[in-house]
Amino acid sequence: MPRITGSPGRRLWIAAATAATTAGLLAVTATAHAADLSTAPAAPVAAAAPAALPAPPAGFTQTWADDFTGASGTGVNTGTWKYDTGPGSSFGTGEIETMTNSTANVFQDGAGHLVLRALHSGSAPRSGWTSGRIETQAATFGAAPGGVVRMESRLQQPNVTTANGAGYWPAFWMLGSTLRTGTSWPTSGEVDILEDINGRSSVFGTLHCGTNPGGPCNESTGLGSGERACSGCQTGYHNYAVEIDRSKSPEEIRWYLDGANYFTLPATRVDATTWANAVDHPFFIIYDLAMGGGFPDAFGGGPTAATVSGGQMNVDWVAVYNKGPGSTTPPPGGTNLAQGRPTTASSTENGSFPASAATDGNTGTRWSSAFSDPQWLRVDLGATHTITQVGLNWEAAYGKAFQIQTSTDGNNWTTIYSTTTGTGGNQTLNVSGSGRYVRMNGTQRGTQYGYSLWEFQVYGS
User: Fold this and answer.
1) Does residue 297 sit in the same domain as residue 445?
2) Taking the CB of residue 246, how many other CB atoms lie within 10 A of it?
3) How do residues 224-264 score in pLDDT, each as one tens digit?
4) Is 67 within the bounds of a domain?
5) Counted domains in the chain
6) pTM of the prediction?
C-alpha cells in the first residue's frame, strides 16, 4: 500500500564528538535556556513517582535492567552507557541538533528517571539545537536459537503537541551488534521499538534490514506498523516493548504498547539470509531525542518558529528478559480448520491480495480489501464444527471494529465475538460457537486503508 510505514533509517551510530561546536552551542544554550522555558515551557520536569522494575513476564527471566537511580543532575553511568555525541547530520537521517554529553541534555533527575532534553538557542528555528543520545556499552541482548528475548522500557514521550512540537523525534530502539564489527547498515539490522514525531501522540514500530536504498526491506522506510495511536503518551508514562521470537517457525518480531501486541512481523516477509543477518544476533539499546530530519519532514516538517525549547523524554526503567529454548508459549491448539479451505471476501484491493491468501498457511501472503467499510472475509470449513479459537494475524491495515460470526448456511449469521477497540497485531480470540462458515465482519477500519490479514485461522473440533 502507498504509505510511509516507518522512519527513514537511523543509519549510523558515532562516538566521535565535534568538541568545539558542542562546547559553543552549550554555552549559548545555557544562557538562553531559562528565557526560552519561562515564556513557552514544553513540559515540567518529570514528577511522577518511579515505578519499581516489574516482575519478568511469565516464562521469562530478567537478563539486564537499569532504573536510573543516580543523584539529581548527574550523567549516566558510563560503565553501562556511552554517549553518542556530535552533529545530528552525521547520523544520516537529516537531523539538525548537536548531540552532547552535557547534563543540560542528558541527566538523571534524582527521582528514578533518565531525562533527555532538547534545548534551543538563538532565533533561527532550524539551528542552535542541542540534545542527547546514549547507547548501551553491551551489545549482547538477543535471543538464542529456539529462544525469545523481550526488550521493554517505561517512558514518557516529550510533553509537546502538534502546535508546539514540530521537529521532535524521540526514539527507543536497537542496532545489531554486528554494526560494531564492520557489517554495514541496514544489513546488520535495526529494530525501532518506539518512534514518534512532531508531538502526534502516536507510535511507530519498524525493522530495517537488507540493503539501502530499496532492497527486500523497502529502505530507507523499512518494514513497520505504520502510525498507531498512542493516547496519553505525551503526558504520561507507558510501556513499550518488542519481542524477538526464535522459538517458532517462522521466527517473528512482535511490538507491544502497554502489553498489547499491536504489530507482528514474520520472518517470511523477507528472504532467509536477510532475516538472519538483521535479526539472528545480539543488539545494543539506544535512546535519543532528535530534532528535525527525514521522518518529521514526512509529516509536516520542523522545527518551526513555534517549536518549543526544553521538551524532554523521561525514562523510568529499561529491562531485557529472556526465555530459553523449549519454553515458548504454545500457539492455538489443534488443527487449523480454515487452512486451505475455500475462502471468499467482500472485495480485494487488487489481484495480488486474494481472499485465499489469508487461509493458505503462508504468513508471507495476505488478503487486502478495498479502502471502505464494511468488509468481510469468509471461510467454508466444509462441515459444521464447534469453534473455540480464531486467530487473526493483521497486516498494518487492521480492523478497529469487527465481529467474528458463524453460520450453518452462509446466509444467517451468529456473532460469537465483537469489539470496537481492536488494535491489530496477532490476535488469538477465545470464542464459543458452531458453524460451517466463519467470517470476520469488519465495520470500522483502523487506518485509512482497507482490512488486511496475513492469516485467518479457525480452531475447534
Assistant:
1) no
2) 22
3) 999 999 999 999 999 999 999 999 899 999 999 999 999 99
4) yes
5) 2
6) 0.66
